[in-house]
Amino acid sequence: MEGYLGNERLKRVGVELTYTVDQVEEILKCQNDPVYFIRNYVKIVNVDKGLVPFDMWPFQEEMVNSFHTNRFNIAKMPRQCGKTTTSVGYMLWSVLFNEEYTVGILANKGSLAREILGRIQKAYEYLPLWLQQGIVVWNKGNIELENGSKIFAYATSASGVRGGSYNLVFLDEFAFVQHNMALDFFQSTYPVISSGQTTKVIIVSTPNGLNLFYKMWVDAEEGRSDYKPLEIHWSDVPGRDERWKEETIRNTSEEQFRVEFETEFVGSSATLISGVKLRSLAFRNPIRHDDGLDIYEEPKAGHLYIMAVDCAEGVNMDYSAINVVDVTQTPYRQVAKYRNNQLPLMFYPTIIYKIGTMYNEAFALIETNNIGQQVVDILHYDLEYENIYKLDHHHIKGQTISGGFKRNSNFGIKTTKSVKKIGCANLKTLVENDKLIINDFDTIAELNTFARVRDSYAAEEGNHDDLVMGLVLFGWLTAQQMFKDETDIDVRKQLLKEQNMLIDEELTPVGVFDDGRKEEVEIDSGDVWSNSGLADRYPPSTF
Q: How far apart are CA 340 and CA 66, in angstroms?
């Protein structure tokens, strides 16, 4: 029999075969049990033995059964355990034994997605002809079978499967897709996934820090989503024992083994916040979401709130970001977060105004390095929002800083090297000593990639730090004597008391501290910080 395009291993469309009774029985067995089909008819390429039957391990059978019985699956698995090969077997079964069934394969790179499709094609070629469907389309990017079933291979992106209708979407190594691209993908793709009642999603990956895969895994483990979590330990793979572990660590590193085989969600080793602390941060789902604003705690009467504001141009690049922090008492608490990278600059002051008004006329701490000055001007002069922190451009020697607007003052703060250095040190101290409770996943994700770059800290390539930079400014503010006076809170004194530390150098620097003497507060330009009348509204006795 002449095969498809001369390939005798592939069945052409329209070829009629005569089936034996045994073959019919086998087809029925395969149709009813994907594990049986894969174990008995799928062949794979072994690096040592070449083309061999797929003799599945017990955990691989468990994977297939989970894929078959659950609509939404998420698997956290070690390297080189056959997770992709197992998924290939199930996708092949899906298109053979279902009519008009469409599968989308997505990976962090288009070439990897096509390589997975190539594995399916290799396994298909070595099926008996009586198990095959006739080939309609057969190329590197997609295949189509006589029964109307199709498989497409794409890179994971916002447009990956947009506009299509899919019965199964397979995401390979999803943790390695850039965080923002992964978010965009789900925002554009989930309507496609949820459009049917039986559509399946299979997410398989090795961890790669605290990103969207991490969030989806934790949500699945804690029952906050419909995803079925499936975790495989490296020791489940035959031949992997303690001796193998020691050898692997010796040839790589302890940290690499923890990520790639222990499947820990370990962040960068150079992050501002220690990896141990990052792994312990627990995010919460917002109690309410309103067009970019995630609310974790509703405003409370008599509470004092500060908005840390970072400004962007709203052109699908950096985000305009606001962190709302309750500073009524320690630990401080992140109670709301706003983030949007499509909002036009002219509308941003209105958003700040609304959020600030909602949270008891919260005091706005606004970064003004670039376009922030325009935001501040509109917020103050046009919208007449009064509670904006400002700098007074002269020295105040030997006296306590007070509030009020002065003729030569500027609203907002410029993030100088000095401000950022103090802010980073303070933020580290606050978070690692549980003096600042962060509830938002996006903020935790940014902290996971906020790492050392030469002599400073910034987002790692391909990531954002807009939310974190707002908290850096907040960290700087907490070191200022004015803030301590108005809130009656001195984080350094509390930490020293709690930890019984007598030597100041043993504690991570937090900038200015209160030694009981009158204080002069300065930053690079010789500016002095003012709080626009905070003491009048919230006297220390309030707290």
A: 37
DSSP letter (8 states) at residue 388:
B
CATH number of the domain encompassing residue 37: 3.40.50.300
Question: Looking at the 3D structure of the chain, how many domains does it have?
Answer: 2
Band of pLDDT at residue 500, cut at 50, 70 and 90: low
How far is C-alpha 364 from the geometric centre of its chain's CA atoms? 27
* Model pTM score: 0.70
Instruction: Tell me the one-letter amino acid at 516.
Output: G
Most confident of 189-198, 443-452, 483-492: 443-452
Residues in the chain: 543
Span 129-149, average pLDDT: 94
Element (H or E) spanning 325, and its range?
A: strand 320-326
Domain region containing 38: 21-232
Crossing angle (nearest 10°) for helices 491-499 and 417-432: 40
Q: What is the residue-wise DSSP string for 140-203?
A: SSEEEETTS-EEEEEESSTTSSTT---SEEEEESGGGS-HHHHHHHHHHHHHHHTTSSS-EEEE
Please tell me the chain's helix, strand, coil percentages from 3-state DSSP, rounded to the nearest 5: 40, 20, 40
For residue 253, the number of C-alpha atoms closer than 13 Å in the C-beta half-sphere is: 4
Catalytic positions: 173
Q: What do you get for the CA distance between the two ends of the chain, in Å? A: 88
Does residue 206 fall inside a structural domain? yes
Q: How far is CA 147 from the centre of its chain?
A: 39
- C-alpha–C-alpha distance, residues 313 and 167, integer Å: 39
List CB contacts of 29: < 8 A, sequence separation 6 or more. 36, 37
Contact 64, 58 (CB under 8 A): no
362 φ/ψ angles, rounded to the nearest 5 degrees:
-55, 145
Structural domain contains residue 16: no
Query: Who contacts 397 (Cβ-Cβ below 8 Å, separation ≥6)?
Result: 520
Q: Measure the CA–CA gap between 128 and 212, rounded to whole angstroms.
A: 41
